[in-house]
Every structure is written in structure tokens, then in C-alpha cells.
Amino acid sequence: MEPFNLAWGASVYAKVVATNGYGDSMMSNAGNGAVIITNPDAPVDLVETVEARTPDSITFSWTNGAANGGSLITSYRVSYDNAVGVFQELEDNIPTTSYTATGLSFGSIYKFKVEAMNGFGYSEYSDEVSILCAAVPVAPVQPTTTVIADSVVFDWDEPVANGTPLTGYKVYIRKSDLSYIIDTTVCNGGNVNVI
Predict the structure, then answer these.
(1) How far is Cα 104 from Cα 44, in angstroms, rounded to an integer?
(2) CATH architecture of structural domain 44-132
(3) Each residue's pLDDT tens digit, 45-100
């Protein structure tokens, strides 16, 4: 704050002198109460917490901006586009630097942005992050096996992909000692022949 060169977060101290026709009084003791504060910097580095993925939720976290505006950041506000491109507030008064949005539609891409709040007010919005709502596929129903001539055919139904297309299957075959070994890492359909 010019010309006093007070930093954000600094207390403002003042002394007062009273004046009348005879002159100036002694100077008062220093008093304070005001603190120089402003909006905090916007949060940065929004990133998905991949290990928390589910078919209908997205978890993400962020980092505080470089400056808090001279006042502790007390909470955050998350906005999203509900996968339709128009932003709206999702939740406020979030006490931590992470959030889980629930009730989403798998296969849809959602955009999120975050504001930080201190004793002065909200920051600018963070940069947007786009996240696909998806998770690992549902486990296939147990396969059936059929012997045809000198081949064994494994057959199964395609499982729910949970938001992103299936790219293949891994087939494990049990050995005589009851352990399983992987026989095929990529299959294009719902069956595989083993000779």
C-alpha cells in the first residue's frame, strides 16, 4: 500500500496527536486493527486423483496459488460445466484442496475450475481441467469352455465398459497345479480358441 510500503497481511498501526490553540498534545500510543489484505491468487495444478476413479464420480485436487492475499485461505468453491459446456457452481465452503464430484454419467467429459477464499473474498478462477468420467470395466461374467475338435473355445459376454471403449481382453488359463497363466493378452471378440 503506497506510500507506506506495507505488505499484504501487514497490520496498520497509527498514532494520533490532538491540536488546539495552544499547540499539539502528546502522541497517543499506537493502535491497530486493520490488516492489509486482498484476494488470494487462484488455485493451480488441478489434477485428477486417478486411484479414486469410479464409474459415476471424479476426484481431483489442486494447489494454492503463490500468494494468499495476506489472509489465510479458509475454503474453496468448485464450479463445473455438467458436461454441457455451461459452468455453474457445484459446491462451496470446501475445507480441503481436493473434491469428489458424484452422480456423474460415465463416458462424459466434465470441466472443473476452483476458487480460493480468504478473509477478503474469492480468488479468480483456476484454469479449467477436463476429465473423462470413466473407470476400469466391470469384470466379465465367468466364461464358458467348449471342446471343438482339437481346440478349446472360451466364450464370454462383453462387460460394461464404464465410460471408455474396451480395447481387448486378457485370458488366463488354469494349470494342473491350480495356478493361472496368461495365455492371450489381446482378443478382439468375446471368444478365443486355444489349441
Answers:
(1) 24
(2) Sandwich (2.60)
(3) 999 999 999 999 999 999 999 999 889 999 999 999 999 989 999 999 999 999 99
What are the phi and psi torsion angles at 50 (to 5°)?
A: -60, -40
Q: Buried (b) or exposed (e) across 74-98, using 16+ Cβ within 10 A?
A: eebbbbbbbeeeeeeebeeebeebe
Q: pLDDT digits over 126-139, tens only?
A: 999 999 999 889 99
The answer to whether 98 and 129 have CB atoms below 8 angstroms apart is no
For the chain, give every domain's residue range.
Answer: 1-36, 44-132, 144-194
Per-residue DSSP letter, 186:
-
C-alpha distances in angstroms, 172 versus 52, 57, 154?
A: 27, 30, 11
Q: Is the dihedral of CA 94, 92, 53, 45 positive or negative?
A: negative
Q: DSSP per residue over 23-79, as a string? A: EE-PPPPPEEEEE---PPPPPEEEEE-GGG-BTTBEEEEEE--S--TTS---EEEEE
User: Is the overall model pTM greater than 0.70, yes or no?
Assistant: yes
Nearest to 60 by CA among 73, 76, 72: 76
